[in-house]
Amino acid sequence: MIETETNNGWIQFLEFIQNRCTSAEYENWIAPIQFIQASPEEITLEVPNIFVQEYLLDNFKDVLAHFLPLKHTGDPAIRFIISSAKKEIAETATPLIEPEEPALAQQEIKLNHLYRFEHFIEGPSNQFVKSAAVGVASRPGKSYNPLFIHGGVGLGKTHLLHSIGHYCLEHHPKSRIAVITTESFINDIVDALRSKSIDKMKRFYRNLDVLLVDDIQFLQNRLNFEEEFCNTFEALINQNKQIVITCDKPPTQLKLSERLIARMEWGLVAHMGVPDLETRVAIIKQKSESRGFDIPNQIAFFIAEHIYNNVRQLEGAINRLCAHSRLMAEELNQEIVEKILSEMFQMSTSHKKISVENILKGVATVFEVRISEIKGESRHKEIALARQVAMYLAKELIDDSLMKIAASFGGKTHSTLLHAWKKIADQIQINETLRRQVQMVQRNIEN
Ligand code: ADP
Ligand code: MG
Known about the structure:
The protein is an alpha/beta fold.
């Protein structure tokens, strides 16, 4: 009873401030806070990082005091759990280093020992980005700088980032290397501000030879941190120190300052695509062998045909099969595999395979042009736009080489396709009508 009342306090607080801050503030700072539990003495909240906690207390301490239990000091009695810290403890490999001691940091650098170039399976979708990574690791600061790797979830971005770290440590043992997640960079700044050691922290970052930054998309909407990151970035690049960044989207689609986006495009922007069938089979074979478990080719193909857009899911499938066959000691056949992996197959197959023809149909309907016009040469404004949207969607949604996709548009070149893709990717950031039209086509195709 009392518990519910205290929880109500949090809900009332949310209702109270919802109309008193901008919707952007609410979305960025308040919405990510999770209510965990409440007692008459205190309330527990989970925050994504310490900065959200500070924001809440800096801005709303007094208001909170009206709604929540109080400490004897009169401050609201809130216990915070930081979810990023929780996640980091749960993960075996934490790409974190201690910023306090520059001399020690290098020895303590924690790279996932499995994420090495030797364990990375190459195929047409990732050959380019892998060679760029090897290039950077062989001659840090001297080839592409920064190297910006972007692509979907579970496709091996973190794997390549750590591979660069391992390679550098082995081949350039004197170089100072740090692998960080964007969250940990932000937490470092906050901690340093607190303990008044910001200069030390800046010195640490700016004295690095190689800075590997994972998941830069989390820097979005973090204005103060963005500036600090940008300064660190410039300081390193100006001294020809290597920076590698991973992200779930290309730089132009990031909601960051123009200055930082331009910097990130200075070097090489490389896309990590979805591996094709043969590559997925090779990954299944390698991962199962490394677990001392042999999956016959036929079964490997069967799995690869059903799970196709995420390597992490492939690994999950192998783990399940591995566990099952250890327990049951029975030979794997297609039927058993289908049974064990049925949920995962459903998840993957719910994404229908999309063809250029599907896309052309969808675009033709929404943009009210003919398919033959999209495939043709007309430069008429409406037709050219529809054509560019179709090319954009084809590149986004189809797991095939750019050359092949471009050819399906009446023999266009892959640079025409890329140009169209970039143009629409930029336009949908600023043009609401176009964004809606593109979403409408996408929904029609995927259903
Ligand atoms: P991302 O950072 O892009 O979300 P990860 O790097 O975490 O993805 O990769 C997810 C899992 O898939 C990791 O265990 C990684 O080793 C594995 N993986 C991804 N791509 C490959 C590949 N080409 N070869 C071997 N393993 C891969
Ligand atoms: Mg990752």
